[in-house]
Design goal:
Layout: H1 2-12, E1 26-27, H2 44-50, H3 69-82, E2 85-89, H4 92-103, E3 108-113, H5 118-126, E4 130-134, H6 139-149, E5 155-161, H7 173-181, E6 186-191, H8 206-210, E7 218-222, E8 232-236, H9 238-247, H10 249-252, H11 259-273, H12 276-297, E9 307-311, H13 315-327, E10 330-331, E11 333-335, E12 346-350, H14 357-375
Parallel strand pairs: 1-10, 3-4, 3-5, 5-6, 6-7
Antiparallel strand pairs: 2-8, 7-8, 9-12, 11-12
Helix pairs in contact: 3-11, 4-5, 12-14
The structure holds pyridoxal-5'-phosphate.
């Protein structure tokens, strides 16, 4: 079977993935950035009191669904927060594949940052319009592409993440807004997966923090990370909202999220809005950890968020570093191709609000010990 050959090649390249088991140390893996998921049992009685046993299945796609109560309530709540139309999707993967494939029609151009998430790449690949890419965060290159091509298309979509999932660095959102305003046919598409809950006064994301929510045409938010729930939503204009209801295939042709899940999402988003102190703590902890890490590694860290990569440089080195940390009771996963480019393999450390400095000092000590042992080899 050809599939055996592929698996063997992956194994030889040290890229064979396995579902991790037996983890239980200091958690630097999960995207539960505000530690809401870790504390979920604290919210169960409130959930039961406020939501009267919502159905466990939607039993149909949203367009055929009889019971819309929870979906509509959550969309209304989010519309109030974002001052945009909101559409729930089944996951961030569904949102990006559905939205970008729908936006990419003949006569349109999708221009994306080279480091966007796989779900965005897949959405663009499913489309039928033209595509172009710019070097990560290179606004000069984006400007050149737009100068050359924008006038040839009816619609141009510039697609970025606000916080990049593997480097933890930020998109220059303000500059992106300035650039898009120079063109009447350019829409700005921003995936806030790793910023929602963590950035902004109410935790709405980096666009809220920068005061530019109204300038972003299409915002994508997943609820499986800081919101400790499941699902995703798209916040956008009336027209694009209606367009997605009609043309986003992952919305039309898939059973809607279970009402029980939506009710949980509702509760978690309410909690997130009030977590100002936790956001401040996570911000300070991340800044401190980054600078300590830079001192140890001697490598400047581009991250400006709670996602902090530790350079490994090869798949085997990343695996080895993760195994050593795990032996010391620290859970961190190696990130390899195709998630990141060859030569940039790393550990992706994901910090969360309930971590304490003492725990991170232990992590730094272990990283230092690993680096010293590698130098001695
Ligand atoms: C930037 C980004 N967008 C979208 C997704 C997909 O979201 P979901 O897990 O809800 O499918 C992820 C990761 O899971 C992500 O990192």
């Amino acid at each position: 079977m050809i599939y055996d050959d592929i698996l063997q090649t992956l194994d030889e390249d040290k890229r064979l993935r396995k579902i991790p088991t037996g983890l239980g140390g200091i958690d630097l893996i999960s995207n539960d950035y505000m530690s809401l998921g870790a504390k979920h049992s604290e919210f169960l009685s409130e959930f039961q009191e406020r939501f009267d046993c919502p159905p466990m299945s939607a039993s149909a796609s949203r367009l055929l669904q009889r019971h819309q109560t929870e979906h509509t309530a959550l969309e209304n709540m989010l519309e109030g927060l974002y001052n945009k139309k909101v559409l729930l999707l089944n996951s961030g993967y569904h949102a990006n594949t559905g939205a970008l494939s729908a936006l990419s029609v003949p006569g349109s151009l999708i221009i994306s940052d080279k480091l966007i998430h796989a779900s965005m790449i897949d959405g663009i690949r499913l489309g039928h319009g033209d595509t172009a890419r710019f070097v990560h965060n290179d606004m000069g290159m984006l400007r050149k592409i737009l100068e050359k091509k924008a006038s040839q298309y009816k619609s141009v979509v510039v697609a970025v993440e606000s916080v990049y999932s593997m480097d933890g660095d930020l998109a220059p959102l303000r500059e992106l807004v300035e650039i898009k305003k120079e063109y009447s046919n350019v829409l700005l598409y921003v995936d806030e997966a790793h910023a929602f809950g963590v950035f902004g006064e109410k935790g709405l994301g980096l666009a809220e923090e920068l005061g530019i929510l109204s300038d972003i045409d299409i915002l994508i938010v997943t609820l499986g990370k800081a919101a400790a729930g499941y699902g995703a939503f798209i916040a956008t204009s009336e027209t694009v909202h209606s367009y997605f209801i009609n043309c986003a295939r992952s919305f039309i042709f898939s059973t809607a999220l279970p009402p029980s899940v939506i009710a949980w999402d509702y509760l978690m988003i309410e909690k997130l809005a009030g977590m100002t102190q936790e956001r401040k703590h996570l911000r300070e902890l991340s800044e401190w950890f980054r600078s300590e890490l830079e001192n140890i590694t001697g490598i400047e860290c581009q991250s400006r968020s709670q996602i902090i990569p530790v350079h490994a440089g090869s798949a085997s080195r990343a695996i080895d570093m993760a195994a050593k940390l795990r032996a010391a009771g620290i859970d961190a996963l190696p990130i390899r191709r195709p998630t990141v480019a060859a030569g940039t393999e790393r550990l992706r450390l994901s910090l969360s609000a309930n971590l304490k400095r003492e725990e991170l000092i232990r992590v730094l000590d272990e990283i230092l010990a690993i680096l010293i042992s590698v130098e001695g080899e």
